[in-house]
Design goal:
The protein is mainly alpha-helical and 441 residues long. The chain has helices at 6-27, 30-65, 70-102, 110-120, 124-138, 143-148, 153-157, 163-179, 182-206, 210-223, 228-233, 235-260, 264-281, 284-299, 303-316, 319-336, 343-359, 366-377, 385-393, 396-421, 437-440.
């Protein structure tokens, strides 16, 4: 019997996890899920994060050392940044248009605002987000550039939140290897080539448990969800965000079809395991090893491109999150500060959300931190910050899952466009976990 495709296995695991979560919620099995089901999902995410940094280092050095020409790397880098900025501005614009046309804030009663404020406004999570946003706002305009340069390479590699520092060091090392000549660089290049193959094989092995892991992750999400009545009250706001994210998927499909001449449905099918994991984990960084594996082996993007475009995208390209910023900022203004809904403020949202998507890349819970920065840039009353975050906090987790999926899809789309532009988009060459099993069994 033919083995079920990986994306179908993961999808079935997700659906069963959601159903089991609702059943556990009804039967009061919350503690059982937390104690016995959740750990599998946690271990899975840890395994993905475990290999993320070694994969970036090995893959990026292999990609740069194979170039033979530094000018090619410059072309890839410049095109990547320009396209990422373009897609982010498009996402913010789509969000602003939708939230102004649909006006989800008009359906929120004062009673709902009071209930949300009492439930969430004083939570430690919201207080922490406001504090972190204050630190980000008070830093200098070039602080994010300063933060990209590590003072200790080993320390940077030991911190998954310092991905840009790892990328900086790796690019520096890769270029230096080119400059010392092929003969002297060969031993180091052979080491990283071998390490890259080994890490990719680890991705294949980790993916064997992915259907069970997403079952655990989704079951835990359901049993830890908030008050259903509050979720229903925010359904219109959440619907606007989801509609915007769906438009972004269509936008990516058009780019793939028009520029790369590939079928959008084929593209989504090949990327779907990474998208489903992004939805389950809510983390672009955790999904990065799978995204790289799908883009390189199943879509055909050359490692020279994917090894730079995807790690950079996982840290600075937040199309889904940026769209969410636009919708959330205008939504809370519609409810709490309607007098601030001017054209100048909305243009300010575009610019601030774009800059915040880069500057807040390594911040935990970046979405809500970015929102505070955006609100502060337009003069939103500071005493209303806790209420503003409380308004969107209840539905933030499911929306975070969806916008992470969009972030990953955007990264893959840009990698295809950049690869096509430099002649590095070839035929897929998928590998299986047991390709060399006969040699060792």
């Amino acid at each position: 019997m033919k083995k079920l495709a990986l994306h179908w296995q993961i999808l079935i695991g997700m659906l069963l996890g959601i159903l089991f979560g609702f059943l556990a919620l009804q039967l009061g099995w919350n503690n059982f899920v937390s104690d016995w089901i959740k750990p599998l999902g946690t271990i899975f995410v840890k395994l993905l994060k475990l290999i993320a940094v070694p994969l970036i280092v090995a893959s990026l050095i292999k990609g740069i050392s194979d170039l033979k020409d530094i000018s090619k790397f410059k072309n890839i880098g410049v095109r990547t940044i320009i396209i990422y900025i373009g897609t982010t501005v498009a996402a913010i614009t789509i969000g602003l248009v939708l939230v102004n046309v649909i006006e989800p804030g008009d359906g929120i009663s004062q009673e709902t605002v009071d209930k949300l404020t009492n439930t969430y406004a004083k939570s430690s999570s919201i207080t922490a987000k406001i504090t972190e946003a204050g630190k980000q706002k008070n830093s200098g305009p070039l602080q994010f550039v300063v933060d990209m340069v590590p003072d200790n390479a080993m320390k940077a590699m030991g911190n998954n939140k310092a991905m840009l520092q790892v990328i900086f060091f790796t690019i520096f090392l890769g270029i230096s290897m080119l400059l010392i000549g092929e003969k002297k660089a060969k031993p180091l290049k052979d080491f990283f080539d071998s390490l890259n193959d080994a890490i990719l094989k680890m991705v294949d092995l980790i993916m064997l448990i992915s259907p069970f892991a997403v079952f655990a992750l989704l079951a835990n999400v359901v049993v830890t969800s908030g008050d259903p009545d509050i979720l229903l009250a925010l359904l219109k706001y959440a619907g606007v965000v989801v509609f915007g994210l769906l438009i972004m998927i269509v936008f990516y499909c058009v780019l793939v079809s028009v520029y790369t001449k590939k079928s959008p449905l084929w593209f989504l099918k090949q990327l779907s395991p990474a998208q489903l994991l992004a939805f389950s984990t809510s983390s672009s960084a955790a999904t990065l090893p799978v995204t790289m594996e799908r883009v390189e082996e199943h879509i055909g993007v050359d490692k020279e491109v994917s090894s730079f475009v995807l790690p950079v995208g996982a840290t600075i390209n937040m199309d889904g999150t940026s769209l969410y910023q636009a919708v959330a900022a205008v939504f809370v203004m519609q409810v709490l500060w309607p007098e601030g809904l001017g054209f100048a403020n909305q243009m300010s949202i575009v610019l601030t959300a774009l800059l915040a998507s880069i500057g807040s890349a390594a911040v935990p819970g970046a979405g809500m931190v970015m929102l505070v920065i955006v609100l502060e840039s337009i003069g939103f009353p500071k005493d209303l910050y806790p209420v503003a975050l409380a308004l969107i906090f209840a539905v933030d987790r499911p929306l975070d899952m969806l916008r992470t999926t969009i972030n990953v899809t955007g990264d893959a789309t840009v990698s295809m466009i950049v690869a096509k532009s430099v002649g590095k988009l070839g035929d897929p060459k998928p590998k299986n976990w047991d390709d060399h099993y006969e040699q060792v069994k």
